[in-house]
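Need tokens for this chain, all 174 residues.
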Amino acid sequence: LVNVFKLARYNAILVEWEDMFPWTVDERFRNETAYTPDQVRDFHDAATAADIQIIPLVQCLGHMQTPLGINDYAHLRELPDMRDDINPLAPGAGKLIADMVNDVLALTPNIRYFHLGGERGLGQPPVGPGFHRAFVGGIFEAARQLGTGLCLLLRRQWEYLVFTDAPFGGRFNE
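Here are the structure tokens for all 174 residues:
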């Protein structure tokens, strides 16, 4: 696949692994046909050899069906019966996101960019007082911890996309 991208003259690939990633934060996040750590490393090696940047994406607000579909994480849902959106104000939400980011960083060598996806799946207005402060503050803290020189936040209604520019150093914390 990387060779096809190289022939098409791509210089970057945004990769959202979701349940195909070999998660260690909670192995239940893995699909039964998830990639192995070696396959993820081989993909990155092939991209590096082709001069293609890999930009990993980890969701941090909406589109969180993989973890929130597990009943042990139901307390992190924004709405009890909906598995899409995490409530960033819920105790443990930041730790879950940090652990997911760290899993991806552990298998993603020499990256310059990281995408923290903050789109809200339902398009609902924010829940609870302090939502924007918690979410936006958390994004800028994430960018700081990732060693970023740039954090771009785009807002359209209740949808957010965040890109951070690196080089990355260290681990991501809650």
